[in-house]
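Q: Give me the 3D complex with NAP.
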Amino acid sequence: MIADKKKPGKKARKATAPIRVGLLGLGVVGGGTWKVLRNNAAEIARRAGRSIEIRAVAVRDIEKARKLLGDEKVKVTTDGMEIARDPKIDVVVELIGGETAAREWVMEAIHQGKHVVTANKALLALHGNEIFDAADENNVMVAFEAAVAGGIPIIKAMREGLSANRIDWIAGIINGTTNFILSEMQSRGEPFNTVLAEAQRLGYAEADPTFDIEGVDAAHKLTLLASMAFGIPVQFDKACIEGISKLEAEDIQHAARLGYRIKLLGIARRRDDGIELRVHPTLIRMSSPLASVDGAMNAVLVHGDIVGPTLYYGQGAGEMPTASAVVADLVDVARLESADPEHRVPYLAFQPDAVEDIPILAAEDIESAYYLRLRVADRPGVLADISRILAEAGISIGSMIQEPYQADEATIIFLLHRAREGSVMQAIENIQKLPFVRSEVTRLRVEEQI
Ligand code: NAP
Ligand code: HSE
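A: Here is the predicted complex, encoded as structure tokens.
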């Protein structure tokens, strides 16, 4: 029984029945969630007002799960549907990943009137509209703090803490694996594949690591953040996505010499004509608060019209940070289960009937500054011809460096002022055709204000 010590005259609160959890998945995040609920049970119950108990688990390998669960009386099955339909389960926690079984089991749990907690950003980025609609119809909660930026309570901040604001933009390092890879490549000169293998061993990487490397995982997360920032539907298919697989070590070094670091950023920006939704390697100034975010750490900068810039930082992946977010959601569900559904915080921060279909801008309409690198024959007129193409496209050159490459060749790097992506791509196509250009033109985006 939890007594109210502040007001002596007030009746002690009634002991409340435990909230009964069915866990789908007992891998990195599921295993961590199990450990946190066991190790911090008393502290968590003090916060939630009731205990949170795992009653059933779904996995593929029952023997492996039994080893982790020990003597605990927990039902173990390979069929998550059993858990979704079990009348003795109040909350289903989906930690298997993917979109197939996860979607079926989550939808069934919702239709059975169960609350859902998930860390599955892919599921929500692709099927969030359907899932949130079903949850709304069935008066259940869908909580997903662990789906974005691991242990950082960014969903809580977006849904509640920043409610007074019209959000202008978000920029974040929201994939731990790629940030780990970029940091290690930069600081220790480690090869890409060695660092990726380490990220996989540490449990940061997705089941399919191309999701991390190609920016897809970051785009899943950015899609959710953008919905909560601007009150728009979940629209992953409209995100402009570029990963780090084609990033060359040479550009990391050139960027450093110019006073920049390269980070894989997710950027969502409100403009008068729509919203930019993009993930790509980005040059940011060394002085940016995001430039010193290293390893698997994540950080999200959110700019609101009232509050100005706010920064959220913490561990973005791995067993315990992610489990911390899953359990925080479980505490919320335990606290709010009996609240009138009308009085709960909306899933995507805005009331469902206030969501607006603001257009997501196409890739060619993105506006950014740019870094171009190319190798050319070192002879008169080269710079003049390139400058002319840029000028004709209405693109202004911020700065330029040239250094010898071989006897008769030079590497040229341009930093271009803000321009429309479509114009930059057209100019690059024209530059590429010049007879003295001896390499592919490397194009990276630069953000000076982040
Ligand atoms: P994981 O280590 O691969 O664990 C997946 C778990 O799900 C395993 O226990 C696996 O069982 C079980 N499973 C998978 N498919 C199943 C199926 N069809 N039927 C029954 N059980 C199934 O994955 P994870 O890293 O914990 O990631 C889980 C989710 O959290 C993903 O959506 C991921 O994107 C998200 N997430 C992960 C992190 C992270 O740092 N790892 C951070 C944030 C979010 P077996 O072990 O028996 O095969
Ligand atoms: N693969 C993801 C990452 C896990 O590296 O950030 C956390 O969402």
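A quick observation: The chain has three domains: 19-148+320-354, 154-315, 364-447.
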